[in-house]
Design goal:
Structural class: alpha+beta
CATH class: Alpha Beta
CATH architecture: 4-Layer Sandwich
Number of domains: 1
Radius of gyration: 17 Å
Order of helices and strands: EHEHEEEEEHEHEHEEEHEEE
Largest sheet: 7 strands, mixed
Distance between the termini: 12 Å
Shape: globular
Number of helices: 6
Amino acid sequence: MKIVTWNINGVRARIGNLLHWLTESAPDIVCLQEIKSADDQFPRLEIEALGYNVETLGQKGFNGVAILSKLPFDEVNRGLPGDDADDHARFIEGVFSIKDDKGKKTALRVVSLYLPNGNPIGTEKFSYKLAWMERLERWAAERLEFEEPMVLAGDYNVIPEAIDARFPENWVTDALFQPETRQAFRRLTSLGFTEAVRATTDAAGVYTFWDYQAGAWQKNNGIRIDHLMLSPEAANRLASASVEKHVRAWEKPSDHVPTAIELSLQAA
């Protein structure tokens, strides 16, 4: 089963690329971020025509997350618990039916999440980022108790290690690379999650984002901030992880590219 995360950076602006990529890549489940679209403006019909079920948590003009799935949704949960005043559309969870190793029906949980950027440091935006990550950690710890395959996929706005940036020295004053940010990300690993890409390669030069400015794409001046975190039950089924870098070279691209995993899972 192929599960992919992609910060689309405006789904209506990139709908042509999205439809082409869905046909080319043929993912089973797609987690989109920054759809920048209200729910009623999301291009649902075009995507459904390719055989996908669609669930969104939209927001006009910014933020917004979605899950596209060839599997039917058993359950959908919108919004990260823990702060009733937080109205940012950054979190959606889908639950699907799959078969375990013994052929017994079980649940697969997939989350599309878009973490706050957090810049500039020293402002309420950075505090919001860290508080959001603490809420995610609490939520994830509770979900792990279900002992089910679970994938937390999205734009984390976290550069985990220096190897994940072409020029890490350029990011030392950025919220994405602060010690507090990276520690919060590592706490997910401490809970028992596996970061899929680094579970399959320790190579440098693996990036998922290239800024539109200063020829970053042409110079391969990238960073890796899009991640898929796997519960132990999902990590045990990890077959591969990859970054579909070629999509960045398409016309009118997002500044992010799809990051994919293959899990040895069977639909129920």
